[in-house]
Amino acid sequence: MSNDSDSEAMDVDETLNDTQATNCSTPGGGGSDEALIDIYAKQYEEAQKILQDGLTDAESVAKVGQLLRDSSIHCKKEKKVRESLFGSSVLSLCAQISKNQALALDTNLSAFDVQAFADGILAYAFDGETETVDWDKLSKRASKMFKRSPAMSYMYGSFKATELPRKEPKERVRRQAFKATGEKKEPEKVTNVTATDEGNDKAVQHLKKVLKSKFRESGNQPIDFFKFVLDPTSFHRTVENIFHLSFLMKNNICAVRQDNGGGLPYIHYVSTQECTELQKGKKLQCILSITPEQWETLVEAFKVDKPMVPPLT
């Protein structure tokens, strides 16, 4: 141990002797401050023993840590300079011990022991029965540490280093302005089909005739849309009925409105006066789609046994 540590130990011992002499001569002892000094003295003696023995094991490190934790608790009880002196002496000694333990720590990060490495290889490859080195065993382990080039396969044939054929640049041909010598051909004019022409279709006229007869039978009462267009025997005729009915709606022969009660669509009769008002108003378009599954569901839901619109013969 250094001279500084010896001098600190002598100072603490002298102070302890003076304290004990004072306690013997003074009635009642020195109170709580003397008890705190005794605690510091015991901690100092324990730390000094660890420093003198040069202990660096895990148990010694744990003891030093416990001394530091106890000192941090006792320092809050210090009220006199003498108590602070003993506390700082213990902390100084613990710091010296921690420094020595840190220097003695061997991390094996920068040191490489050649002899230990050779002994390890010999212990791995040495054969106890023949008392010789098993080089095959060592070579198999060592070969894994070397990088190998991938094996070459002739699956795609041999490689011939031939020069690639060069593509000859194509000669650019100047575009000449096209001069029309004959008459220009124009596309055939497509005449627009008016609403009147659409209404002349036989299927539309047939549907119109059936619808008017149904209105006469019901006294111009609204007709259920689905019961009118659904054909339980044919899906494609159901689609045709919806399609042909759209022409009648376009020509303001009938109108489809929702029922206020159930929200289902109904076909309404359009009078001459109402037709004039509809022509003046804004036209709206609606897209209706139906699938075979929906068609079957609607036929069952509305219990349609036979079509209201007979097929056109």
From TrEMBL:
<feature type="compositionally biased region" description="Acidic residues">
    <location>
        <begin position="1"/>
        <end position="16"/>
    </location>
</feature>
<dbReference type="InterPro" id="IPR014854">
    <property type="entry name" value="Nse4_C"/>
</dbReference>
<dbReference type="InterPro" id="IPR027786">
    <property type="entry name" value="Nse4/EID"/>
</dbReference>
<comment type="similarity">
    <text>Belongs to the NSE4 family.</text>
</comment>
<feature type="domain" description="Non-structural maintenance of chromosome element 4 C-terminal">
    <location>
        <begin position="222"/>
        <end position="309"/>
    </location>
</feature>
<keyword id="KW-0539">Nucleus</keyword>
<comment type="subunit">
    <text>Component of the SMC5-SMC6 complex.</text>
</comment>
<dbReference type="Pfam" id="PF08743">
    <property type="entry name" value="Nse4_C"/>
</dbReference>
<dbReference type="GO" id="GO:0005634">
    <property type="term" value="C:nucleus"/>
</dbReference>
<feature type="compositionally biased region" description="Polar residues">
    <location>
        <begin position="17"/>
        <end position="26"/>
    </location>
</feature>
<keyword id="KW-0234">DNA repair</keyword>
<keyword id="KW-0233">DNA recombination</keyword>
<comment type="function">
    <text>Component of the SMC5-SMC6 complex, that promotes sister chromatid alignment after DNA damage and facilitates double-stranded DNA breaks (DSBs) repair via homologous recombination between sister chromatids.</text>
</comment>
<dbReference type="GO" id="GO:0030915">
    <property type="term" value="C:Smc5-Smc6 complex"/>
</dbReference>
<dbReference type="GO" id="GO:0006310">
    <property type="term" value="P:DNA recombination"/>
</dbReference>
<dbReference type="GO" id="GO:0006281">
    <property type="term" value="P:DNA repair"/>
</dbReference>
<keyword id="KW-0227">DNA damage</keyword>
<protein>
    <recommendedName>
        <fullName>Non-structural maintenance of chromosomes element 4</fullName>
    </recommendedName>
</protein>
<feature type="region of interest" description="Disordered">
    <location>
        <begin position="1"/>
        <end position="30"/>
    </location>
</feature>
